[in-house]
Amino acid sequence: MNLKEKTLHGLRWSFIDNFANQGVTFLVGIILARLIEPAEFGILGMIAIFTAIAGAFVNSGLSTALVRKNDCTSVDYSTVFYFNIVVSVVAYFILFFASPYIAHFFGEPRLTAITRVCCLSIIIGAFSAIQSTLLTKKINFKAQAKISVTSSIIAGVIAIILAYKGMGVWSLVWRGVIGGVATCIFLWLQSNWRPILVFSKQSFKELFGFGSKLLASGLLDTIYNNIYYPIIGKYFSAATLGFYTRAQSFSNLFSSVLTGNIQRVSFPVLSSIQDNQEQLKGGYRKIVKSTMLVTFSLMLGLAAVAKPLIVVLIGEKWLPCVPYLQLMCFSAMLYPLHAINLNILQVKGRSDIFLKLEIAKKIMAIPLIIIGILLGVEALLIGTILYSILAYFLNSYFSGKLIYYTVHSQLKDILPLLLVAAFVSLLAWGITLFHFSNLATLSLQIAVGGILTIGIYEFLKQPDYLEMKTIVIENLKKLKR
User: Fold this and answer.
1) Do 54 and 122 meet the contact criterion of CB atoms below 8 Å apart?
2) How far apart are the C-alpha atoms of 5 and 169, rounded to whole Å?
3) Contact present, 156 and 30 (Cβ < 8 Å)
4) Residues 284/403, Cβ–Cβ less than 8 Å
5) For residues 239 and 215, what is the distance between their CA atoms, to the nearest angstrom?
């Protein structure tokens, strides 16, 4: 396959993987939200930052280093495998013994046992990290799609059964652990790679030289992305945190999944052409425009339909999460832009700039977080919008210098897409003023938004839309065959 075919093949299966997986997760989440009280979701959210930080340590940036390195050996893979196992075990025991203090901090005794069980997923994930990396390096997302969707279904069914039996927060806990175990087993069955009894100091030094800066950057980003869980859990309430986590799950369904897919596929593909400046810039520009065409439409559209969507899917008891979701949509709308720009720094091997940017951005975030603690959750989320804007300009400035794709050029490319999405979403939101039933309002909003968006881009003959349309039609024909 040539570069375009390889990218499209990878994107197709990556989207199938993530959207099918997230679709299953989302549907299971809707059922669980009707069976479990918001405060129960909040309890699990309290330890999210601890498991996320431990997971970042386990990955340590070495997986990214393996993907970027074109001549990896079995020694490289085995070295990273054993390093991941050791770090995951150490991280688990630290959290195991720290769990009583975590429970005391939040005033929730159940967190001791919950933390100890949840954190088993850290060790489980370490055992299959290399198998997953190998599939990513080969741009083989078809296998990953089958594995992740199957695992999500298994874990989701068990969680629903436990919730029906009144297990509450424990149904959420075991959902995560069982999903991790299933994924690990399927990855080992699918992969032919097995570790050899070798740990190379030279290999580790080479990979860690690049990965260590990504580790530090990843830790900073992980702490920032998850810091709102303990803040809301500590200074507000478990119920408020439950509303926050539920709103975030709706927001992530589109923004994070879309960004993750693009980064997941574009990094190995662009890494293979990192020395061809013209081809790299052209491919990257196309990725940015195509991604933002979809992101602007989805995120602004989600903000417009937030209220009827929440009521129809998970019930009126979750109404307090509507303003959270709407604010999250505006910050998440920009996330793909600054995240994808960071990707080019990794492709170019500039993990040093990557780290410096993360430090600068997190320093800027501190006063926004403090103001949010004083003024409330809505103020916290408004702060994330301001942060996302600042992060985009910083990231795009430095990545733009590397490939000669400036901030001005990026804004010129994406501003028309933002204007179209804003116009359509405003009209869709206006339907809520007619006070139809929630189901009727939601149906009308989706229909009007979809028809207007397609109609406007067809009228304008927007090149990226037309290319995406052709690709979608071709892939649908392939699926039918």
Assistant:
1) yes
2) 44
3) no
4) yes
5) 33
pLDDT digits (tens, 9 = 90+) for 136-176: 777 666 777 788 888 889 998 999 999 988 888 899 899 98
What's the mean pLDDT in 390-400?
A: 82
Question: What are phi and psi for residue 350, nearest 5 degrees?
Answer: -95, 60
Q: How many whole angstroms separate alpha carbon 457 and alpha carbon 452?
A: 9
Write out the DSSP string of 436-475.
--HHHHHHHHHHHHHHHHHHHHHHHT-HHHHHHHHHHHHH
Closest CA to 58 of 25, 17, 91, 29: 91
Phi, psi of 192 (to 5 degrees): -90, -10
Q: Which of 68, 178, 83, 172 is nearest to 127 (CA)?
A: 83
Segment among 49-53, 235-239, 333-337, 338-342 with least mean pLDDT: 338-342
Both tokens assigned to 376: 């409330």
Taking the whole predicted model, whether its pTM rises above 0.70 is answered as yes
Instruction: For the chain, give every domain's residue range.
Output: 1-226, 237-481
Length of the chain: 481
CA-CA distance, 335 to 255, in Å (whole number)?
A: 7
Name 276's Cβ contacts closer than 8 Å, sequence gap at least 6. none
Dig out the tokens for 473 from the structure: 């039609």
Token reading at 239: 């119920």
pLDDT of residue 174: 92
Structural tokens at position 236 = 């507000």
